[in-house]
Amino acid sequence: MSANDSINNKQSIAGEVGKNTIFPVSGIRLATAAAGTKYQDRDDVAIIEIALDSSVAAVFTKNAFCAAPVQIAREHIAKTTPQYLVINAGNANAGTGQQGYANGLEICTVVAKTASAPVETVLPFSTGVIGEQLQVDSITALVPTIFASLNEQGWEAAAAAILTTDLVTKIASTKVDIDGTEVTITGIAKGSGMIRPDMATMLAFVATDVKIKPEVLQHLLKESVSESFNRITVDGDTSTNDACLLIATGKINDIYINKTDSETARKFLQGLIQICKSLALKIVSDGEGATKLVRVLVKEGKNADECFNVAYTVAHSPLVKTALFASDPNWGRILAAVGRADVDTLDINKISIFLDHVCVIEKGVPAEKYTEMDGNEIMQQSALTIEIRLGRGTIAEHIWTTDLSYDYVKINAEYRT
Amino acid sequence: MSANDSINNKQSIAGEVGKNTIFPVSGIRLATAAAGTKYQDRDDVAIIEIALDSSVAAVFTKNAFCAAPVQIAREHIAKTTPQYLVINAGNANAGTGQQGYANGLEICTVVAKTASAPVETVLPFSTGVIGEQLQVDSITALVPTIFASLNEQGWEAAAAAILTTDLVTKIASTKVDIDGTEVTITGIAKGSGMIRPDMATMLAFVATDVKIKPEVLQHLLKESVSESFNRITVDGDTSTNDACLLIATGKINDIYINKTDSETARKFLQGLIQICKSLALKIVSDGEGATKLVRVLVKEGKNADECFNVAYTVAHSPLVKTALFASDPNWGRILAAVGRADVDTLDINKISIFLDHVCVIEKGVPAEKYTEMDGNEIMQQSALTIEIRLGRGTIAEHIWTTDLSYDYVKINAEYRT
Fold first, then answer.
1. ipTM, 2 dp
2. Which of A263, A317, B201, B338 could form an S-S bond across to B127 if both were Cys, CB 3.0 to 4.6 Å?
3. What is the reported pLDDT for B410?
């Protein structure tokens, strides 16, 4: 298989997740420009303006070495509600020490001055190469131009401007009927390289026109992240720069979500999860060099922890991943990965494994009716589910992953060169 | 870089570990033959005969799903001292259920009958594809022929017969002077695919002519394994078939090691570790598609656990591994991996990173004197050390790993096809 074949396949899986009409969100304006520091012929800086009186919730990377912009964003959002997000692609401003912090702050300062707003209302986001200092001037010089072009239709341009090694833009948008009122949820994201999301930072910015109490917004963000972005990464949010923001502009006056357990909140959460899941699947489908979108579903566990443990061990096994790339129903590799998951007293005689609907292993041994041809057929698909039944309990959890292809190596070996 | 370039590089790193003269071990005879079940034009079955009155110690895989031969070997060695080891390559007899167990036992039975020995004195070892039943007859038919050719010079033939995806044979041999007596230690091993050793089973058989008390032998085996084979695998001994045997034939009457803390034991252990380490480095250097042998050294930790945790997180990062393949001193990926290791309260301002002697990161930021050229020079080498100083304590631990190349994907994607 040539690199080109593989990349074509890859684009087609990413495409399968589907394209939506993009609905602007009242209270959000966006614009972009080209700093040209790393990429030629494309925009690489975006500013998102958030209307006053919005609520904003955020989750950040758990990596011990969070990047300068993450430090600044955490400090600023702790002080006040953000009004401006400034995002640059190509340089992560990570591992850059005090100079990096000063550079991030300098960008915020320029944005704040241009907007006549306090510097704390500006959050910086960076993604790209680690360990090189930002060319601050090339970014700050663009701020007036970007401000002049802020507009509610800027979502697609922003989605494109924040990409790094991504092959496709990630954008999702929906309208949800809540108690007779039509509300909008729209989001953009970037990220790929989902074997482990080290440097392939995940950024996501989702906004709605609903009015939502800040504490409730934070809760809704966590719920939706745990059903979406946190199921496509190996170690949770562990890049140095990962961040996910949820903005509620409150431009729709009819609805106010001020409790997490109301019917209104539940309806909204359903729509929010749909958007986040759509973005997450676009990310994992765009996994570097990925040719397959694979759901790993672990059932019959004693608790969620052990289900996730088994799912991640299988999803991270390079041998399972290369078998997926080869469309080889090599269940032995799946079984060996399950066997080394950190779960006490696993009994092979209770384990069953399915590829989609095809039972491959039944209670520890090849299923009687299983034929290699059946397995091959499923493995040819660009999307499939590996289902593992542990025979220990009633809990089920799932995650999404991709295969490991020549292109993964190619993309990551050549990233800086 | 073409596949051929890479494989040539790889053979050269494997070769660098060095070739020894192979000294036979009095009391050990070996022979091989070709069952032809998977491989053409090569031997794939070996029998090792152990003289009566020997001591034998063993460690087996910790994978919850150990293969049928491992179950049988464990049961047999618990009952009596082994006299025969029978090893087949190409089929792991794993995930094969009761039929697999019966097949393994059948092979032992035929060997035992041929030798007029109890079946419990025979241990079976299998390596290769998981989940296919052994073609027992093609193996048992060879047993008389193999017995007829057992000889003390059979080490190299046995080393070759047990290989699967390995590119080079792994054999090491030394003579050690202990209190004026020359003793021999010789071993063979197989294994590659050391990103994670799932299916790429590691087998090692090491023998000496020294007389050693069984409990002491087990202790010496564990000590030497922890300094060698257990430092080249990600999850310890976690393939379904991993096994390591240490045999003391006791043919040299002058020395009897019956205490673990004697000077004699220490001298012997030194030689044993040398052999095990040599075999382990041959395995990791032969890692599937590997072009580099990389030691990850973590210093200044609070305890061994956290040093290993950081070392494994770095060694397993596909992004670090692909950067190594590209000879790219991309320390940002190393730093990001350290940051997501499961270690509490890591402080980036105390972390330093070296590539061999070159300081790249000093207390969290790029070292003042560091230049990309210096980093590049180290990364061009086929062997190098990534040294990470945590600035938290005085403990140091190291492991060995390899890079992640196109060939890794190629070899593992095409293993069964």
1. 0.77
2. B201
3. 75
Residue B323 contacts A where some CB pair is shorter than 8 Å: yes
Q: Helices B3-16 and B406-413: crossing angle, nearest 10°?
A: 100
Domain at B15-285: CATH architecture: 4-Layer Sandwich (3.60)
- Domains in chain B: boundaries: 15-285, 293-413
Strand ranges inside B258-408, DSSP E = 293-301, 352-355, 358-362, 365-366, 383-389, 395-402
CA B358-B364-B370 angle, 5° bins: 30
Catalytic residue among A201, A249, A401, A402: A201
Residue A280 has pLDDT above 80, yes or no: yes
Confidence of residue A161 (pLDDT cuts 50, 70, 90): very high
Contact B65 A408 (CB under 8 A): no
Would the CA dihedral through B85, B88, B92, B95 be positive or negative? negative
Distance separating alpha carbons of residues A409 and A290, to the nearest angstrom: 11
Query: Is A201 assigned a catalytic role?
Result: yes
Interface contact A322-B409, CB threshold 8 A: yes
**Partner A contacted by B362 (CB < 8 A):** no
Rounded distance between C-alpha atoms, residue A130 and residue A90, angstroms: 9
CB within 8 Å: B317 and A198? yes
Residue segments in chain B with a per-residue pLDDT below the cut of 50? 1-18, 194-199, 234-237, 417
**Amino acid identity, position B296:** V
| Residues of chain A contacting residue B291, judged by C-beta atoms under 8 Å apart | none
Contact between A335 and B65 using a beta-carbon 8 Å cutoff: yes
Q: What six digits make up the tokens of A227? A: 């059903």
- Given a contact cutoff of 8 angstroms between Cβ atoms, the answer to whether A184 and A21 are in contact is no
A146 Cα distance to chain centroid? 26
Q: Touching check for A396 and chain B: CB below 8 Å? A: no
Q: What global pTM score does this model have? A: 0.83
Interior angle at CA B238, CA B126 and CA A236, nearest 5: 145
Catalytic residue among B201, B208, B240, B313: B201
* DSSP single-letter state for residue B120: G
Task: Read off the pLDDT band of A39 (50, 70, 90).
Answer: confident
- In this complex, do A409 and B406 lie within 8 Å of one another by their Cβ atoms? yes
Give the residue, A232 or A80, on which the prediction is more confident: A80
Residues contacting residue A7 through CB under 8 Å, at least 6 positions apart:
A167, A289, A407
Residues of chain B contacting residue A92, judged by C-beta atoms under 8 Å apart: 332
Q: Which CATH superfamily is domain A293-413 in?
A: ArgJ beta chain, C-terminal domain (3.10.20.340)
Cβ atoms of residues B387 and A298 within 8 Å: no
Direct distance between the N- and C-terminal alpha carbons of chain B, in angstroms, rounded to an integer: 24
Q: What is the DSSP string of B326-358?
A: TT---HHHHHHHHHHSS-TT--GGG-EEEETTE
Asked: is A16-285 a CATH 3.60.70.12 domain? The reply is yes
If you search the block for the tokens 């011990």, which residue do you land on? A64
Provide the 3-class DSSP secondary structure of residue B218. helix
B166/A236: higher pLDDT: B166
Of chain B residues 229-248, which have a CB less than 8 A from chain A? 235, 238-240
Single-letter code of the amino acid located at A56: V
Residue A400 confidence (pLDDT): 92
Contact predicate A121/A112, CB 8 Å: yes
**Cβ pair B332:A64 closer than 8 A:** no
Q: Is residue A317 less than 8 Å (CB to CB) from chain B?
A: yes
